[in-house]
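Hi R.,

As promised, here are both runs. First protein below:
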Amino acid sequence: MTHATAEEFIRYQSDALVLRLARFVWQMHIISAGLVVMVLWDWFSPVHLVVWAGWMSSFALLQACISFKGTQQSQRARPIREWGRWFDGTAVLLALGWGWLGFSLQPENEQLRAFIGFLIAGGIVTGTGTHNAHYRMLVVTLLLIVPAQAARVVIDQPGEAGLISGSMLMLFMGLMLGLGWVLHTFTRNGFALQWEKSRLADQLEVQAEQLRQARTAAEEANYAKSHFLAQASHDLRQPLHGIGLLVASLPDGSPDRSTNTTLLRVRRSLDGLARLFDSLLDVTLLDTGQTKLTAAPVALAPLLLAAHDIFRPAAADRSIDLRIVSTRAHVLVDADILSRIVHNLIANALQHSRADRIVVGVRRRGAQVYLEVWDNGRGIPDDQQRRIFRDFERVEIPLAPQTNETGLGLGLAIVARLAAHHGIEVSVRSNLGRGSCFAVGPLQPTTDERTEAKPALQHAAKPASPASGHVWIIDDDQDARTGMTALLEKWGHTYQAMPMWRREDKTSFAAPDLVITDMHLFAGHSGLDVAAEIRRAYGKHVAVILITADTAPTTRQQVLEAGHTLLHKPVRPGQLRAAILSELASRIPERVSTEPS
């Protein structure tokens, strides 16, 4: 039952307490009445005794019914105010009976008088302990009982002895009323605290519900944001992928200088867009908790060489010397996360440092290993070295020459979040005008000399020497096929391009060493299914690279389980070439070893 005010709650709980305790008191009235009738049977008229006992027993039974019924109603959280009033009425009527006994039915035998006084005193003490929550009723009942008994004592004992006995009885009543008030106050305070606790619990429940609703709204908003980013990313990646491949396939040199300049700017813009999409993908995966950590022994040299192959064209466009320092270090790390960290650091150096040299290498500090990216560019002011790891923060150097390089300021923020997710740190040391050094670590070294075939899902190691092979391109986008075939021809590979492949086409084409297929082909066909069918037809040695604009974690997991390489659109030429060289280097020896000699 709900209560509007604290007073209503206290009154309700007081009624409930009195009714609950009264279930164990009503028997006292009946037993006491029976004992009185027995001891006084020879002293007073049986009629008077029977009437008095009937009075006491009847109202005691009525009080029992009221107490049990009222308690049942309180347990069901129903109103019980009327039951409390009825109980008070029966208590007053029973007090009249006890008062009449103390005044009218007093035998001349002193022992019997003491016995009756003991019964009345016991009832008063019991009532004070059980009925104090109804203090007004307690006062009325004591006034009906004790003064009558005291008056009888004064009448029967004239003089000083009677006055002293009567005064002692009145003093006893005062003590009982004082004790009752103390218990009444204590009980009310307890109920008041219970009310405050209940209100506080209600407030906490309301606040918890508000927090749940706010959290749900935030999660829905975050999901909507991620869904929007994923959908927008998917819709934009597809055309940019084709444009990027077509632009990358254009000849590097042209007699027209302005044409060369325009082409260089277009390539830089497309490269910046590709990095932007990679940043949005990283942010989405981090925000939605889809970046999984899988640590394993990894050789750093292939991972760094793969990054070099990816960023070498962009560095060449900017006339920057990008170097990788050879290393034999093996560390226990999630190769995919470390690869993304390295890529972001190199991209940041290319885009913002204005350096002419960038060096990537490994440094040992005692038993610890740190991966470092150095540049000899403009440097970073001391007061901005912490800010650059925040979202959308970019370095501002007063009086520095303006640049056309743009960015969202997410690259280093993503680096910091990826590193924190892996349990490592990213730090920076810099001097204005002399350059900067970004260090990632400490990385746990391992003596395991095994090198992972693919340091990440998206990028693999560069082989010792260039490898060429026969490559199939399966893509229903004509622009993507055209751009990719031009690049393959430029890189010295033979190829066969087609919008779709079916098993009945097996006799029409030469067996592939590598298949590059789009994830989502026309008519609902899946690149994964097509790759599986090609491997069943030509053998498991056929390497597969899947290209997609779909950033869903289920897609990444499916490709990982199938053992293929995954590239997200728009694919940069260096990224594509590194993946092709790695797959051909790892698969062609396997194919040769399985062919009959």
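And here is the second one, sequence first, then its structure tokens:
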Amino acid sequence: MTSIHPGNLHGTGDRTNKSRYHYARQRVQEAQKSKMEESDGARREETARKQTNNGLIVILILMIVLTWGIAATAYFGVIDYKGLVVRGSRIKVTDAAGYASALYPFQYDSARHPLKAIGKFLTSIDDYITNFLFSSEVSTNSLKKHRPIVRTIPLNKESNIVKRDTSKSESVVSDDPNPTKKPAEEKDVAKASDPSNDKDKPRKAKSPQPKQPKDSSTKKTKQETVKTNESTKKKKPSTVSEEDKKILNKLKEGERLLEKKKGTEAWKYFKKLSADYPESPKARFYRGKSEAMVAEQQKSNPMLTQAITTFTEVSEMSNCPKELQKQALIAKGERESFLGRMKPALQTQIELAKLYPKDIGILNKLGVRYLMLGKNTAAKKVYAEVLRLSPNDGFALVHMGFILKNAGEWAESVPYLMRGTESNEQGTQEGKFYFHLGDALYRTNQTKEAEQVYEKAAAKGLFRSKYQRSLYNVDRLRGKPFWTPEEAGVKDYVRRLELNWKLIRDEAMAILNTDTGLFDGESESLRDTGEWKQFPLFQRGRKEEANCRRTPKTCNILERMPNAAGCRRGQVKFSVMMPGTHVWPHTGPTNCRLRMHLGLVIPTTGSGTRLTCAGEMRTWQEGKVWIFDDSFEHEVWQQADSLRLILIVDIWHPDITEHEKKTLTAI
């Protein structure tokens, strides 16, 4: 008989029951696991919901706080919010709390104020915002790119908006409207008291560690710079009248023609426009400009004369704006001067000076107009007035020095010329001013200083060299102190003069003995001592008819020398020098000529006569010719017992072309 185990009462059916038991148990475990997972999911969802709610609350508070700050900035102008952000981007994160404390006025005393919790909470929000804004993760460059220009009001110690105990800590925002603290020093400003501290006593500020500023001068903030620029910027005077405003587009259209240098088109355009709108000063002014442009392009003096007339009409129009009247008169005077009408040009400049009695440029030009007419005394008064208005005006200084020098006041002229040339102002760096400064120094026994002036001017390119100081030059010409007849290309001239020297001498002595009054005294203030007179035969390429009638044979010989008689930058003359004469070192005006000396009466008694050119000495012989370049410095002594008589003959430089002989300005 088969035994039955107590756990297996049903025999083979027991295996089925066992399977069902395990299945049920598994179902229970799965149910428990599912329930646990559902519970965990619910907890996670709850946690996430709480976090979301917290985040929303934080964001809401941040928005409220930021909105308050921005609104206060825009409305009251009391908080430089963006400025603080930018400044904060240049400081350490540890210093952020100090800037945050100036950002919002939530400076509640946590021990006394009833809103203790709110004060602490908002202060912590301040710290959170500040650390976020000024963290190392924020790009400093991006903040600098968008640096705003905002209206700011300094918060001082007595401000009701931000209250601090300033006895032990520095205020973040200076109460000085003109702060002297350097930007480099402002980087490490001491932190203000911590508003989250429950103690009544504010936290002690750290001692600042200022960096050495690069520049000792105070740097202005961007706001101050903008304000300064706006205040110093002057409004440009208007040249547009009420009549002009009606046709602005048409004026601009014609102006474009002038800009494109289309002279004829512009002239026709403005001629019609000024006829259609006769009361428009601007249209008439542009007509004058177009006429001047056509005159220049076509080399037409009649058209230039018409431009002068038009500019005059503009200046006389009753509705002409003052600035346009000024421009019209300036344009008129320049064209009058160009045509050689010096007296009308002077009157125009006088009219301008009456309208603008304190305009330095107009007064300086008035002085020049007087000088061009030889009215040095009037010019001196003008430049004295300029120097009264502007004592350091370089242009007035050099011209005042020039006037004094030519009046023989050498010592008085030196400081004016020295200061004027050293100013390097426009119009002062001309060779003539250095020329006269050096000459004045030499004549006051300051030889070394004179040489330094000449060397300085040569280095500036104002002179060809220390010795060659002529002012009207052709740059390519060869230059040296002495020349041979072959080098100068005048062998036949020299031979003809030397063959006829006695005939020439006799004619000269005849006019000298019969009537010494025919010889003119030297007029260029070159003589130091003694007596030096001249008798011209040809000047600037033109024959002196009256004098040649007295010396017909000499002039007949010279007329067969076209490079001498026709030298428009030279002269032919007899020169007589009495004993005891000394001529200062000087130079001729141009390098376009060479100078021949024919000895007629040469004394040999006493110490004789001599000429030094660029440091090289020569003397004369009767009946002999030698040639030198008078654009080089030369000096003459006559220390004999009787007069010295020579014939001076200027000839074109051998390198001058035939075209240049005809076109170079006569001197």
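A quick note on the second one: The chain has a mean pLDDT of 79. Let me know what you think.

Best,
J.
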